[in-house]
Amino acid sequence: MKTLILLLAIGCFSLSYSQTISTDDKLHFGAGAIISGGSYAFIYTVTKNKKKAFWYSLGASTLAGLGKEIYDGSDKNNKFDTGEWVATTLGGLTVSTTISIFHGKQKKKRKHALVN
Q1: Domain boundaries along the sequence of the chain
Q2: To 10 degrees, the CA torsion angle through 106, 107, 108, 112?
Q3: What is d(CA 88, CA 32) in angstroms, rounded to the nearest whole number?
Q4: Phi/psi of residue 51, nearest 5 degrees
Q5: pLDDT band at 43, cuts 50/70/90?
């Protein structure tokens, strides 16, 4: 009975097209990820501060998305799309968080005395 309910639920939810993500939003997510990753690496090498690198790289991807949407909104046939701006910001947040978590602290190796 559980498998029947599970198969029916999967069948119902797989037919729902309201949760699809457009190709343009995927491109915005990727652009935000690339901008954030590059700016995180640059800022961290300059400052050696993980918090600054996180916030500045997130800000860079957010500002890039905002600037692009403002530019798109100035065209006659285009409008400001909040969803694309959010996608760019989420791409930046994903990469900044991932790098911040997995970068970790540099452990100093202890010097041990040689004992015979």
Answers
A1: 22-102
A2: -160
A3: 4
A4: -65, -45
A5: very high
pLDDT at 115 over 90: no
| Cα–Cα distance, 16 to 4 (Å, whole number) | 19
Q: How far is CA 36 from CA 14, 21, 91, 115, in A?
A: 33, 21, 8, 48
Q: How far apart are CA 25 and CA 115, in angstroms?
A: 61
First to last CA, the chain: 69
Confidence of residue 76 (pLDDT cuts 50, 70, 90): confident
Q: Which of 72, 40, 34, 35 is nearest to 56 (CA)?
A: 40
Q: Within its chain, how far is the Cα of 74 from the centroid?
A: 26
- Residue among 29, 49, 35, 57 nearest 103 (CA): 49
